User: Fold this.
Amino acid sequence: MSGKSKNSDTSNTPALSRRRLLSTAGAAGATGLVLGAAGGATGYAATRDEAPAALTTVGSTEVMFHGKHQPGITTPLQASGHLIAFDLAPGAGRKQAAALMRRWSAVAQRLMSGEPTEGAADGPGHDTGVALDAGPSSLTVTFGFGATFFERTGLTAHRPPGLDPLPPFSSDHLDAGRSNGDLWVQIGADDALVAFHALRAVQKEAASTATVRWQMNGFNRTPGATAKPMTARNLMGQIDGTGNPKPTDDDFATRVFVPGGQDPAYDWLTGGSYAVVRRIRMLLDDWEKLPVERQERVIGRRKADGAPLSGGTETTAMDLDKAGPDGKPLIPDNAHARISSPERNSGAAMLRRPFSYHDGISRDGTPDAGLLFICWQADPLRGFVPVQRKLDRGDALSPFIRHEASGLFAVPGGAAAGEYVGQRLLES
Assistant:
Protein backbone atom coordinates (compact mmCIF):
# COMPACT_ATOMS: atom_id res chain seq x y z
CA MET A 1 0.00 0.00 0.00
CA SER A 2 1.58 3.30 -0.99
CA GLY A 3 0.62 6.88 -1.66
CA LYS A 4 -2.89 8.06 -0.93
CA SER A 5 -5.99 5.99 -1.22
CA LYS A 6 -8.67 8.21 -2.76
CA ASN A 7 -12.38 7.55 -3.02
CA SER A 8 -13.23 10.59 -5.10
CA ASP A 9 -12.04 13.01 -7.72
CA THR A 10 -9.26 15.29 -6.43
CA SER A 11 -10.69 18.46 -7.91
CA ASN A 12 -12.43 19.20 -4.62
CA THR A 13 -9.43 18.41 -2.42
CA PRO A 14 -8.62 21.36 -0.14
CA ALA A 15 -5.18 22.93 -0.14
CA LEU A 16 -2.60 20.95 1.81
CA SER A 17 -1.95 22.20 5.31
CA ARG A 18 1.58 22.07 6.72
CA ARG A 19 0.61 18.99 8.71
CA ARG A 20 -0.84 17.14 5.71
CA LEU A 21 2.19 18.09 3.61
CA LEU A 22 4.52 16.63 6.21
CA SER A 23 2.43 13.47 6.51
CA THR A 24 2.39 13.03 2.75
CA ALA A 25 6.16 13.28 2.57
CA GLY A 26 6.47 9.74 3.87
CA ALA A 27 4.20 8.20 1.28
CA ALA A 28 6.77 7.54 -1.44
CA GLY A 29 7.65 4.01 -0.33
CA ALA A 30 5.47 0.93 0.01
CA THR A 31 7.52 -1.24 2.36
CA GLY A 32 6.44 0.30 5.64
CA LEU A 33 10.09 1.17 6.47
CA VAL A 34 11.14 4.51 7.94
CA LEU A 35 11.72 6.86 5.01
CA GLY A 36 13.84 9.74 6.31
CA ALA A 37 15.00 11.82 9.23
CA ALA A 38 12.95 14.62 10.77
CA GLY A 39 13.30 17.11 13.60
CA GLY A 40 13.70 16.07 17.21
CA ALA A 41 10.78 15.17 19.45
CA THR A 42 10.89 15.65 23.20
CA GLY A 43 10.90 12.38 25.10
CA TYR A 44 11.22 10.17 22.03
CA ALA A 45 14.65 8.84 23.02
CA ALA A 46 13.17 7.59 26.29
CA THR A 47 11.39 4.81 24.44
CA ARG A 48 13.40 4.30 21.23
CA ASP A 49 17.12 4.33 20.46
CA GLU A 50 16.87 5.25 16.78
CA ALA A 51 16.60 8.85 15.59
CA PRO A 52 13.13 10.33 15.05
CA ALA A 53 11.88 9.85 11.51
CA ALA A 54 9.24 11.00 9.06
CA LEU A 55 5.89 9.29 8.90
CA THR A 56 5.88 5.88 7.29
CA THR A 57 3.52 4.88 4.52
CA VAL A 58 1.03 3.49 7.03
CA GLY A 59 0.67 6.80 8.83
CA SER A 60 0.52 9.02 5.77
CA THR A 61 -2.12 7.18 3.77
CA GLU A 62 -5.33 9.20 3.45
CA VAL A 63 -8.80 8.11 2.35
CA MET A 64 -11.02 10.81 0.88
CA PHE A 65 -14.25 11.66 2.72
CA HIS A 66 -16.20 12.97 -0.29
CA GLY A 67 -17.11 10.65 -3.16
CA LYS A 68 -19.79 8.59 -4.84
CA HIS A 69 -19.70 6.02 -2.03
CA GLN A 70 -18.92 6.46 1.64
CA PRO A 71 -15.42 5.45 2.73
CA GLY A 72 -14.94 2.27 4.75
CA ILE A 73 -16.76 -0.03 2.33
CA THR A 74 -14.19 -0.82 -0.35
CA THR A 75 -11.29 0.60 1.68
CA PRO A 76 -8.71 -2.15 2.44
CA LEU A 77 -9.03 -3.69 5.91
CA GLN A 78 -7.67 -1.48 8.66
CA ALA A 79 -5.75 -2.56 11.75
CA SER A 80 -8.08 -1.01 14.34
CA GLY A 81 -11.82 -0.47 14.34
CA HIS A 82 -14.80 0.64 16.42
CA LEU A 83 -18.49 0.04 15.80
CA ILE A 84 -20.94 2.22 17.68
CA ALA A 85 -24.73 2.51 17.54
CA PHE A 86 -26.82 5.39 18.87
CA ASP A 87 -30.48 5.96 19.63
CA LEU A 88 -31.96 9.42 19.19
CA ALA A 89 -32.73 11.06 22.51
CA PRO A 90 -36.37 11.60 23.55
CA GLY A 91 -37.72 14.63 21.73
CA ALA A 92 -35.02 14.57 19.05
CA GLY A 93 -36.45 14.37 15.54
CA ARG A 94 -35.61 15.13 11.95
CA LYS A 95 -34.22 18.62 12.58
CA GLN A 96 -31.91 17.45 15.35
CA ALA A 97 -30.82 14.40 13.35
CA ALA A 98 -29.90 16.61 10.39
CA ALA A 99 -27.83 18.88 12.62
CA LEU A 100 -26.06 15.85 14.08
CA MET A 101 -25.24 14.39 10.66
CA ARG A 102 -23.90 17.80 9.63
CA ARG A 103 -21.62 17.89 12.69
CA TRP A 104 -20.51 14.29 12.27
CA SER A 105 -19.71 14.78 8.59
CA ALA A 106 -17.64 17.90 9.29
CA VAL A 107 -15.66 16.14 12.03
CA ALA A 108 -15.14 13.01 9.91
CA GLN A 109 -13.83 15.06 7.00
CA ARG A 110 -11.29 16.86 9.19
CA LEU A 111 -10.10 13.75 11.01
CA MET A 112 -9.77 11.72 7.82
CA SER A 113 -7.51 14.43 6.40
CA GLY A 114 -5.28 14.22 9.49
CA GLU A 115 -6.49 17.50 11.02
CA PRO A 116 -7.71 18.02 14.61
CA THR A 117 -11.39 18.64 15.20
CA GLU A 118 -12.73 22.18 15.22
CA GLY A 119 -12.07 24.20 18.37
CA ALA A 120 -8.80 22.43 19.10
CA ALA A 121 -7.45 25.44 20.98
CA ASP A 122 -10.34 26.43 23.22
CA GLY A 123 -13.60 25.40 24.83
CA PRO A 124 -14.52 22.46 27.09
CA GLY A 125 -14.97 20.13 24.11
CA HIS A 126 -11.65 20.95 22.44
CA ASP A 127 -9.59 18.33 20.64
CA THR A 128 -7.67 16.30 23.23
CA GLY A 129 -4.65 15.80 20.98
CA VAL A 130 -4.76 12.01 21.28
CA ALA A 131 -3.73 11.63 17.63
CA LEU A 132 -1.66 14.81 17.40
CA ASP A 133 1.54 13.05 16.31
CA ALA A 134 -0.01 10.76 13.70
CA GLY A 135 -1.01 11.16 10.09
CA PRO A 136 -4.43 10.15 8.71
CA SER A 137 -3.51 6.45 8.96
CA SER A 138 -6.25 5.43 6.49
CA LEU A 139 -8.96 6.63 8.88
CA THR A 140 -12.51 6.11 7.64
CA VAL A 141 -15.79 7.06 9.29
CA THR A 142 -18.96 5.52 7.82
CA PHE A 143 -22.55 6.33 8.79
CA GLY A 144 -25.76 4.29 8.54
CA PHE A 145 -29.42 4.42 9.55
CA GLY A 146 -31.41 1.66 11.26
CA ALA A 147 -35.09 0.95 10.61
CA THR A 148 -36.19 2.78 13.78
CA PHE A 149 -34.45 5.97 12.64
CA PHE A 150 -37.16 6.55 10.04
CA GLU A 151 -39.96 6.25 12.57
CA ARG A 152 -38.34 8.69 14.97
CA THR A 153 -37.66 11.30 12.29
CA GLY A 154 -41.05 11.08 10.53
CA LEU A 155 -39.46 9.62 7.40
CA THR A 156 -41.17 6.22 7.24
CA ALA A 157 -42.20 6.87 3.63
CA HIS A 158 -38.49 6.90 2.76
CA ARG A 159 -37.56 3.72 4.60
CA PRO A 160 -36.40 1.24 1.93
CA PRO A 161 -37.66 -2.37 1.80
CA GLY A 162 -34.13 -3.62 2.33
CA LEU A 163 -34.42 -2.52 5.97
CA ASP A 164 -37.16 -5.04 6.71
CA PRO A 165 -36.11 -7.05 9.79
CA LEU A 166 -33.78 -9.97 9.25
CA PRO A 167 -35.45 -13.35 9.81
CA PRO A 168 -34.52 -15.35 12.91
CA PHE A 169 -31.87 -18.06 12.58
CA SER A 170 -31.46 -21.14 14.75
CA SER A 171 -27.85 -20.20 15.59
CA ASP A 172 -28.93 -16.82 17.00
CA HIS A 173 -28.37 -16.08 20.69
CA LEU A 174 -28.95 -12.36 20.29
CA ASP A 175 -28.60 -9.72 22.98
CA ALA A 176 -31.17 -7.04 22.14
CA GLY A 177 -29.18 -4.42 24.02
CA ARG A 178 -26.23 -4.93 21.69
CA SER A 179 -28.26 -5.12 18.48
CA ASN A 180 -29.74 -2.64 15.97
CA GLY A 181 -30.03 1.08 16.79
CA ASP A 182 -31.24 4.29 15.15
CA LEU A 183 -27.79 5.32 13.92
CA TRP A 184 -24.64 3.32 13.25
CA VAL A 185 -21.05 4.47 12.86
CA GLN A 186 -18.13 2.37 11.65
CA ILE A 187 -14.63 3.69 12.36
CA GLY A 188 -11.45 2.14 10.99
CA ALA A 189 -7.80 3.20 10.95
CA ASP A 190 -4.32 1.71 10.77
CA ASP A 191 -3.40 3.29 14.09
CA ALA A 192 -5.29 2.53 17.31
CA LEU A 193 -4.95 6.06 18.72
CA VAL A 194 -6.25 7.61 15.49
CA ALA A 195 -9.25 5.26 15.62
CA PHE A 196 -9.91 6.04 19.29
CA HIS A 197 -9.62 9.76 18.61
CA ALA A 198 -12.37 9.49 15.98
CA LEU A 199 -14.52 7.43 18.34
CA ARG A 200 -14.31 10.10 21.05
CA ALA A 201 -15.05 12.87 18.56
CA VAL A 202 -18.14 11.07 17.24
CA GLN A 203 -19.39 10.41 20.75
CA LYS A 204 -18.86 14.00 21.88
CA GLU A 205 -20.57 15.46 18.81
CA ALA A 206 -23.65 13.35 19.55
CA ALA A 207 -24.05 15.57 22.64
CA SER A 208 -27.69 15.59 23.77
CA THR A 209 -29.06 14.50 20.38
CA ALA A 210 -28.27 10.79 20.62
CA THR A 211 -27.12 8.34 23.27
CA VAL A 212 -24.89 5.31 22.85
CA ARG A 213 -26.82 2.06 22.50
CA TRP A 214 -23.82 -0.23 22.13
CA GLN A 215 -20.18 -0.08 21.14
CA MET A 216 -17.69 -2.77 20.01
CA ASN A 217 -13.94 -2.70 19.36
CA GLY A 218 -12.05 -4.73 16.78
CA PHE A 219 -8.69 -5.26 15.14
CA ASN A 220 -6.95 -6.80 12.15
CA ARG A 221 -3.37 -7.48 11.21
CA THR A 222 -1.34 -4.29 10.82
CA PRO A 223 -0.31 -3.40 7.25
CA GLY A 224 3.34 -4.25 6.75
CA ALA A 225 3.32 -7.09 9.30
CA THR A 226 3.63 -9.66 6.50
CA ALA A 227 6.26 -9.87 3.78
CA LYS A 228 3.62 -9.20 1.15
CA PRO A 229 -0.07 -8.21 1.19
CA MET A 230 -2.19 -11.19 2.23
CA THR A 231 -5.83 -12.01 2.90
CA ALA A 232 -6.46 -11.57 6.63
CA ARG A 233 -6.76 -14.45 9.07
CA ASN A 234 -9.48 -14.67 11.70
CA LEU A 235 -8.98 -15.79 15.30
CA MET A 236 -9.49 -19.42 14.27
CA GLY A 237 -6.33 -19.05 12.21
CA GLN A 238 -8.20 -19.40 8.92
CA ILE A 239 -7.63 -17.12 5.94
CA ASP A 240 -10.93 -15.24 5.76
CA GLY A 241 -12.20 -13.29 2.76
CA THR A 242 -10.80 -15.22 -0.20
CA GLY A 243 -14.16 -15.46 -1.95
CA ASN A 244 -15.02 -11.77 -1.64
CA PRO A 245 -16.26 -10.04 -4.79
CA LYS A 246 -13.55 -7.75 -6.15
CA PRO A 247 -13.91 -4.18 -7.49
CA THR A 248 -12.52 -5.47 -10.79
CA ASP A 249 -15.46 -7.89 -11.20
CA ASP A 250 -17.99 -6.83 -13.82
CA ASP A 251 -20.88 -7.24 -11.38
CA PHE A 252 -19.17 -5.82 -8.29
CA ALA A 253 -21.16 -2.58 -8.19
CA THR A 254 -24.51 -4.30 -8.72
CA ARG A 255 -23.79 -6.71 -5.87
CA VAL A 256 -22.54 -4.15 -3.36
CA PHE A 257 -24.12 -0.75 -4.14
CA VAL A 258 -27.73 0.33 -4.47
CA PRO A 259 -28.49 1.46 -8.05
CA GLY A 260 -30.40 4.59 -8.95
CA GLY A 261 -33.51 4.91 -11.04
CA GLN A 262 -35.80 3.02 -8.70
CA ASP A 263 -38.58 4.36 -6.46
CA PRO A 264 -38.02 8.12 -6.03
CA ALA A 265 -38.71 7.73 -2.30
CA TYR A 266 -35.42 5.86 -2.01
CA ASP A 267 -33.26 8.03 -4.28
CA TRP A 268 -31.30 9.12 -1.20
CA LEU A 269 -29.82 5.60 -1.05
CA THR A 270 -28.40 5.66 -4.59
CA GLY A 271 -24.71 4.77 -4.42
CA GLY A 272 -25.18 3.50 -0.89
CA SER A 273 -25.27 -0.01 0.51
CA TYR A 274 -26.71 -2.15 3.28
CA ALA A 275 -24.51 -3.28 6.16
CA VAL A 276 -25.33 -6.40 8.15
CA VAL A 277 -23.42 -6.39 11.43
CA ARG A 278 -23.10 -9.55 13.53
CA ARG A 279 -21.06 -10.17 16.67
CA ILE A 280 -20.04 -13.80 16.22
CA ARG A 281 -18.36 -15.42 19.19
CA MET A 282 -15.88 -18.16 18.32
CA LEU A 283 -15.77 -21.11 20.71
CA LEU A 284 -12.01 -21.24 20.45
CA ASP A 285 -11.38 -23.86 23.15
CA ASP A 286 -13.53 -26.36 21.25
CA TRP A 287 -12.09 -25.36 17.87
CA GLU A 288 -8.49 -25.65 18.96
CA LYS A 289 -9.04 -29.23 20.15
CA LEU A 290 -9.62 -30.30 16.54
CA PRO A 291 -6.62 -31.52 14.54
CA VAL A 292 -5.74 -29.26 11.61
CA GLU A 293 -7.01 -31.82 9.09
CA ARG A 294 -10.44 -31.77 10.75
CA GLN A 295 -10.48 -27.96 10.88
CA GLU A 296 -9.75 -27.90 7.16
CA ARG A 297 -12.67 -30.20 6.40
CA VAL A 298 -15.00 -28.00 8.47
CA ILE A 299 -13.97 -24.96 6.42
CA GLY A 300 -13.26 -26.64 3.07
CA ARG A 301 -9.88 -24.94 2.65
CA ARG A 302 -6.30 -25.61 3.70
CA LYS A 303 -5.32 -23.72 6.82
CA ALA A 304 -1.76 -22.97 5.73
CA ASP A 305 -2.53 -21.09 2.52
CA GLY A 306 -6.34 -20.91 2.11
CA ALA A 307 -6.38 -23.10 -0.99
CA PRO A 308 -9.58 -25.15 -1.54
CA LEU A 309 -9.33 -28.83 -0.62
CA SER A 310 -10.01 -29.59 -4.28
CA GLY A 311 -6.50 -28.30 -5.04
CA GLY A 312 -4.64 -25.27 -6.35
CA THR A 313 -3.85 -22.01 -4.58
CA GLU A 314 -5.94 -19.61 -2.50
CA THR A 315 -7.38 -17.96 -5.60
CA THR A 316 -8.15 -21.22 -7.43
CA ALA A 317 -11.89 -21.73 -7.93
CA MET A 318 -13.35 -24.51 -5.80
CA ASP A 319 -14.13 -27.70 -7.71
CA LEU A 320 -17.24 -28.75 -5.79
CA ASP A 321 -17.61 -31.96 -7.86
CA LYS A 322 -14.06 -33.27 -7.40
CA ALA A 323 -13.93 -36.50 -5.40
CA GLY A 324 -11.14 -38.25 -3.55
CA PRO A 325 -10.01 -41.90 -3.86
CA ASP A 326 -12.90 -42.92 -1.58
CA GLY A 327 -15.42 -41.37 -3.99
CA LYS A 328 -16.43 -38.69 -1.50
CA PRO A 329 -16.21 -34.97 -2.35
CA LEU A 330 -12.84 -33.47 -1.43
CA ILE A 331 -14.79 -30.47 -0.14
CA PRO A 332 -17.34 -32.03 2.25
CA ASP A 333 -21.04 -31.40 1.68
CA ASN A 334 -21.32 -29.47 4.95
CA ALA A 335 -18.06 -27.50 4.60
CA HIS A 336 -18.49 -23.80 5.31
CA ALA A 337 -16.87 -22.71 2.04
CA ARG A 338 -19.13 -24.99 -0.02
CA ILE A 339 -22.40 -23.95 1.63
CA SER A 340 -21.61 -20.23 1.49
CA SER A 341 -20.28 -20.23 -2.09
CA PRO A 342 -22.20 -18.18 -4.69
CA GLU A 343 -22.51 -21.35 -6.79
CA ARG A 344 -24.68 -22.87 -4.06
CA ASN A 345 -26.70 -19.71 -3.43
CA SER A 346 -27.94 -18.70 -6.89
CA GLY A 347 -25.05 -16.28 -7.22
CA ALA A 348 -25.75 -14.49 -3.92
CA ALA A 349 -22.64 -12.69 -2.74
CA MET A 350 -21.67 -9.97 -0.29
CA LEU A 351 -18.53 -8.02 0.49
CA ARG A 352 -17.27 -9.21 3.87
CA ARG A 353 -15.18 -6.63 5.74
CA PRO A 354 -14.85 -7.79 9.36
CA PHE A 355 -12.79 -7.02 12.44
CA SER A 356 -11.70 -9.58 15.02
CA TYR A 357 -12.46 -8.84 18.66
CA HIS A 358 -11.35 -10.00 22.11
CA ASP A 359 -13.30 -8.80 25.14
CA GLY A 360 -11.40 -10.69 27.83
CA ILE A 361 -11.88 -14.03 29.55
CA SER A 362 -15.34 -15.14 30.69
CA ARG A 363 -16.00 -16.45 34.19
CA ASP A 364 -15.86 -20.00 32.91
CA GLY A 365 -12.31 -19.38 31.67
CA THR A 366 -13.14 -19.28 27.97
CA PRO A 367 -12.10 -16.35 25.77
CA ASP A 368 -14.84 -13.90 24.77
CA ALA A 369 -13.43 -13.50 21.29
CA GLY A 370 -14.50 -13.82 17.71
CA LEU A 371 -15.56 -11.79 14.70
CA LEU A 372 -17.30 -8.47 14.25
CA PHE A 373 -18.81 -9.62 10.97
CA ILE A 374 -19.72 -6.77 8.63
CA CYS A 375 -20.99 -7.49 5.14
CA TRP A 376 -22.04 -5.07 2.42
CA GLN A 377 -24.61 -5.69 -0.28
CA ALA A 378 -27.09 -3.93 -2.55
CA ASP A 379 -29.96 -5.97 -1.08
CA PRO A 380 -29.78 -8.05 2.14
CA LEU A 381 -32.62 -10.28 0.92
CA ARG A 382 -30.44 -11.35 -2.00
CA GLY A 383 -27.10 -11.20 -0.19
CA PHE A 384 -26.83 -12.08 3.49
CA VAL A 385 -30.23 -13.69 4.11
CA PRO A 386 -30.17 -16.60 1.59
CA VAL A 387 -26.56 -17.46 2.45
CA GLN A 388 -27.21 -17.39 6.19
CA ARG A 389 -30.31 -19.54 5.76
CA LYS A 390 -28.20 -22.17 4.00
CA LEU A 391 -25.52 -22.02 6.68
CA ASP A 392 -28.19 -22.26 9.37
CA ARG A 393 -29.36 -25.60 7.99
CA GLY A 394 -26.14 -27.57 8.09
CA ASP A 395 -22.86 -25.64 8.27
CA ALA A 396 -20.09 -27.72 9.85
CA LEU A 397 -18.78 -24.54 11.45
CA SER A 398 -21.99 -23.86 13.41
CA PRO A 399 -21.01 -25.87 16.55
CA PHE A 400 -17.95 -23.64 16.94
CA ILE A 401 -19.59 -20.20 16.69
CA ARG A 402 -22.45 -18.29 18.30
CA HIS A 403 -24.20 -15.21 16.89
CA GLU A 404 -24.64 -12.89 19.88
CA ALA A 405 -25.67 -9.53 18.36
CA SER A 406 -27.10 -8.33 15.07
CA GLY A 407 -27.87 -5.13 13.22
CA LEU A 408 -29.02 -4.02 9.79
CA PHE A 409 -28.35 -0.50 8.52
CA ALA A 410 -28.97 1.45 5.33
CA VAL A 411 -25.79 3.33 4.47
CA PRO A 412 -26.35 6.37 2.22
CA GLY A 413 -24.15 7.13 -0.76
CA GLY A 414 -21.16 9.38 -0.25
CA ALA A 415 -21.47 13.10 0.32
CA ALA A 416 -20.48 15.48 -2.45
CA ALA A 417 -18.33 18.50 -1.63
CA GLY A 418 -20.43 20.87 0.48
CA GLU A 419 -22.87 18.12 1.53
CA TYR A 420 -23.21 16.09 4.69
CA VAL A 421 -23.95 12.36 4.78
CA GLY A 422 -27.69 11.69 4.63
CA GLN A 423 -28.54 15.19 3.45
CA ARG A 424 -30.59 13.91 0.50
CA LEU A 425 -32.78 11.98 2.95
CA LEU A 426 -33.05 14.47 5.77
CA GLU A 427 -33.73 17.44 3.50
CA SER A 428 -36.02 15.59 1.08
Summary: The radius of gyration is 22 Å. The longest strand covers residues 367-377.
